[in-house]
Write a structure and sequence with these properties.
Length: 406
């Protein structure tokens, strides 16, 4: 008997009709002799709605309160999905993150799972029940509710699969798998049958929201086979797995885009030791992640411009902190640009090929797109550009690297 964790995303549980369809799928998997644990997201749009409601009250909501608010969407779906399964005649029980022993750190709204005590889940399975777990949440050491960051239900599913050594973790969503680029932007994007953990990790952390980055990290670390497929049909989906020989031949596997970026620049900051540390320590202390950093060469005044990117939701706080530090350092001022996007190409084969970066820059240049920032690693190249060119850039790069063809 196989143990399968099935996670259903927001669109897959968008209304009670969809929830009933999910229940049918779950029960039919159980009917084939499997043990099934279900993890659900909030109904489509609910989490956005909660963020909007909080925003109508305050610009800077208390993050502890935010987490209690955000976590409620998944509780609703877990109870409804459980009822739908029970209605088919199968025994089922819903659980919150706390009830399945998910302990996280205290970084509210982007907490990391520290441990899972799977005993209640095991007990439920032993009693023949189908457990339905509210995704995206846990509790910290003070028993306060935490959430795992947007898209975090994937991580709940993988963490449970790892804790119980499940045979597979199936992520059901509104597309048929992982594509060479977001199929909503690139109509001829190709669905991949397989992708390596490392490439998927890069794609996810660079903005391909089909999987939560932490979920892929967990899957890789614990060797959990991840299958991404559609909850709307029976097509086979994409297997996220260990790298193999065939995969290495492909130079660029896919590309990702991320609109959720803001660039902050400190102008004419003194070019001396310790300055970068002062700025980025202050930002790190506020629990804000900095992504790209670019520092220009200093000119005659021995001062330089320093730009970095943060995610949009952190931009207000990052700006406040940077302005404070800028005053202390005596720099000329701080500017902010929210109209930026990051486009990235990803591929493990890149490390053994020359000219990939040049081809990327040339493609963007031919499309008349200016590059504001660049960052590279062994298996990816990212460029920050004006957001208004993002879709053009993604399509041009997809063509240039022949990603539509096998
Ligand atoms: P769910 O609610 O099921 O978790 P998400 O909205 O989080 O679904 O993720 C699925 C979406 O990810 C798709 O609708 C698609 O637009 C987007 N996406 C971005 N990049 C990719 C990609 N490379 N492959 C597939 N989908 C992608
Ligand atoms: N409901 C959360 C979100 O919309 C978590 C998830 O769907 O994975 O981000
Ligand atoms: Mg998601």
């Amino acid at each position: 008997m196989a143990l399968i964790v099935q996670k259903y995303g927001g669109t897959s549980v968008a209304d009670t009709g969809r929830i009933k369809a999910v229940a049918e799928r779950v029960v039919s998997t159980a009917g084939r002799g499997n043990q099934v644990i279900v993890v659900v997201s909030a109904m489509a749009g609910e989490t956005d709605k909660f963020e909007r409601l909080a925003g109508e009250i305050t610009d800077t909501p208390d993050e502890r309160e935010m987490d209690l608010l955000l976590s409620s969407g998944e509780r609703v779906t877990s109870a409804l999905t459980c009822m739908a399964i029970q209605k088919t005649g199968h025994d089922s029980m819903s659980f919150t993150g706390r009830q399945v022993g998910i302990i996280t750190d205290s970084s509210h709204t982007k907490a990391m799972i520290e441990s899972i005590d799977a005993s209640r889940l095991k007990e439920a399975l032993d009693e023949g029940k189908i457990p339905v777990v509210a995704g995206f949440q846990g509790i910290n050491e003070f028993s306060d509710v935490t959430t795992l960051g947007r898209g975090g239900s994937d991580t709940t599913a993988v963490a449970i699969a790892a804790a119980l050594s499940a045979d597979a973790c199936e992520i059901y969503t509104d597309v048929e798998g992982v594509f060479t680029a977001d199929p909503r932007i690139v109509p001829d994007a190709r669905k991949m049958d397989r992708i390596s953990y490392d490439e998927m990790l890069e794609m996810a952390s660079l903005g391909a929201k089909v999987l939560h980055g932490r979920a892929v990290e967990f899957a890789k670390k614990n060797n959990v086979p991840l299958i991404v497929s559609s909850s709307f049909n029976q097509s086979p989906g994409t297997l996220v797995t260990k790298e193999d020989g065939d995969m290495e031949k492909i130079v660029v596997t896919g590309l990702a885009h991320d609109k959720n970026q803001t660039r902050i620049t400190i102008m004419r900051v003194p070019d001396s030791p310790g300055i970068a540390a002062t700025i980025f320590d202050a930002i790190a202390d506020a629990n804000i992640n900095v992504d790209m950093i670019v520092q220009n060469i200093s000119s005659d005044d021995n001062a330089t411009d320093l730009s970095f990117t943060v995610s949009k939701k952190d931009e207000k706080r990052a700006l406040e902190i940077t302005e404070k530090v800028s005053n202390i350092l005596g720099s000329r001022g701080v500017s902010i640009n929210s109209d930026v996007a990051k486009v990235s190409i990803i591929g493990v084969g890149m490390q053994s090929h020359f000219g990939v970066a040049a081809q990327m820059f040339e493609t963007l240049s031919k499309a008349g797109i200016n590059i504001m920032m660049i960052s590279t690693s062994e298996i990816k190249i990212s460029c920050v550009i004006d957001v208004k060119h993002m879709e053009t850039a993604v399509r041009a790069l997809h063509d240039s690297f022949n990603l539509a063809k096998v």
